What we know:
The complex is a heterodimer of chains A (232) and B (385). By secondary structure, chain A is α/β, with parallel strands linked by helices. Helix content of chain A is 32%, strand content 30%. The radius of gyration of chain A is 18 Å and the shape is globular. Residues 228-232 of chain A have low confidence and may be disordered. With 385 residues, chain B is α+β, with helices and mostly antiparallel strands.
Amino acid sequence: MLELKSVEKIYRVGAEDFHALRDVSLKVEQGAFLAFIGPSGSGKTTLLNLIGGLDRPSDGEVILEGRSLAELDKDQLAELRRKKIGFIFQFHNLLPVYNVYENVLFPLLLNDEKESDVKDTVMKIVERVGLGGLEKKKPTELSGGQCQRVAIARALVKKPALVLADEPTANLDAENSRAILELTSELNREFGCAFLFSTHDDKLIQYVNRKIKLDDGRIVSDEDRSNGEIES
Amino acid sequence: MIFKTAWKNFCRQGLRAILNILVAALTLVVAVFMVSLVNGFQDQSSKNLKKTDVAGGHYRLADFDILSPTEWEDFAFVTPPELKKMSADEKAEVLVQQGQIFPQNRFVPAQIRGIDLEQSLLELPLASINAYKGDSIPAIVGTKMAIKSNLEKGDFVVLKWRDKYGAVDAREIEIIETVRFVNPRLNDGVIWLGLNTLRDMTRRENESSWVTVKSNQGEIEGLSFLVPNVLMKDVIELAKHDRRNSMILWIILMLLCCISVFNSQMLNAFKRQKEAGTLLALGMTPRQLTKMFVLEGSFTAVGAVVLAFILGIPFFSWFQTVGLDISHLKDSTIPVTENILLVFDPKQIVNCLLGATLMIVLASWLPARKISRIDPSRALVGKAF
């Protein structure tokens, strides 16, 4: 479903080049539950941004469902994100002017859905992430864990092929982190979409069926729980 | 969806949005006020000039020039029968000649203006000339002429003139009235006599310098017809100049207002880059993002128009009851002595509102265009700018 071929990302910092990613190649199957782990600055966020079409690689290729992202212009990338990719951010990034229901509804409206047609879908997923009864609350009235649940619902409501979560638990306490991971793990099974998230918290790795370790922009290990470990 | 998001974002700006709307609305009210005041000035001065001098136009000899007194004697003509036969409320024959008066042994040049006292086309306070029973020549002067020449009602003064054949003559005239003419051209430098008296004095039987008419009578051989706009050219030019000044002031005010909107939008773009990055990540296109930010700016324009109506209508209604007092300008050449009232031109108001709206939308589009070009991955971490 997703393939990265020799992906490089170089940032220009002042007069020097900074290699955020070096020769990253990997394949991800439909329904994967995968974590990119590694210390800060190892390239996890950059990798997720490239996969999500938010940034372009300096070299190499990102192929999603058979289409190379390099061939897509800004509007086509926007369409791809709108239809195929869900994002979960560290600080949830909910729209402050909207309540829970409206935040979850928003991606569907972007996809030209009519509110009357999708109202039930939105209510169901809000219920599913444990926020039943809080539909009218604004993000400022919710806890960090609740906001992250809204963000998960927002990412999943359009039934994407791929969900990218950048440090989704970094801003939460241990209990909330565990709850969020359990929830995403369950939803991964329910929705069948691939979950790719970045974390530097080793305790959270127990939930994933594949973990890829990054260091200094390189993949240093790729462990598939069912198939054993492959060093790269 | 974009409209709703833009509206909610706009409302979230709170005081900043209100201040922007207030500034823009006040600018609009001031702009409409200034333009309408100039209209009012032009309207009232035109009315006054028409009422006292211009009416529907003048028939004159082609080269007659009121600003060349030494040539007046050469440009008098016998009133043609087509004009002569017109009724008193449709025409006024006027003869002007140059002369001098000698008040208190001083020499003061003057325009001697004789007008048909039976005419009712022009509104001139000259009825007392007809009612005069004395032995002298009855004359009326404007208040400014009276002050300049140190003349008062009841004074006698020597008037010198030259007749048609070049003979110089002089007689004592009596100032039977000093009156304020709303038209400064008539209030200063003019000695008013009856037309027949002046014709007799100058031996110019049936002659006129011009004939003021209610409406154009068509072509008359030997004479030119000057339309009111030509005769009021100076006032129209003055209004045009004032309108241009108003426009410059309006543009300055609008620029200030647009800078305020621009600043708000830039601040928005800077403060909300994470939100912009999120919207792009959710699949909003750069065009949709621009649209959303421009809409937010446009709400300022719409709000300003609405508030301008709310503030403007009561203000203008009140103003029309008092007008602008210009009594301090009574000695100027402005042909208006009454308070100036506003004259609204719907086309000008619509242009003003449209112009302001377009400028505000443009001011909000520039930062919006910038935010739509941001790198979403950097915007998400607040480092897009």
